[in-house]
User: Fold this.
Amino acid sequence: MQKKLTGRQERAAVFVAEDHFSDHEIAAKVGIKRPTLAKWKLLPLFCARVQEITQELAERALRQGIARRDRRLTVLQRTANRLLQVMEERAADPALAKIAGGKTGLIVSKPLASAGELLGFEYAVDTATIRELRATLEQAAKELGQFVERKDIRLRSLKDLSDEELAELLAELEEESPSSNAE
Assistant:
């Protein structure tokens, strides 16, 4: 029984663990035929090494990649800054300054043409950039635990509740009550 992987098997194990290429591509990169790779994938030593590499990659991602909240927040901040920069540069564009809302940076112009001839421009609010900025800010708030989902709660009068609903409400209030938690 084989005790150590060969150089080619080790390289193949890395490619398999990274999961970026098909088996055919991995075999070509390592210099073997695909059936050979299929046989290696059945070897316990090869499988164990692939699992080990996969675990190492996952741990590295947690330490260094976007799995870290601070790194995700950095990317979100950069994204928000760039979106705001686009809007600021648009707001400074003298061509848009004359258009209603042009100084806000939220207006985009789109050329209108017919038969290859420029007829003029159409101006509209850039809802796509606004939507992306809002989504970026919302994601940042979620990452920081500051996002609160607002719910429309309509209170009914207690006299409109059934006996069962009143009992459920009373049970919920007793669970939430600080005095019941202290006992």
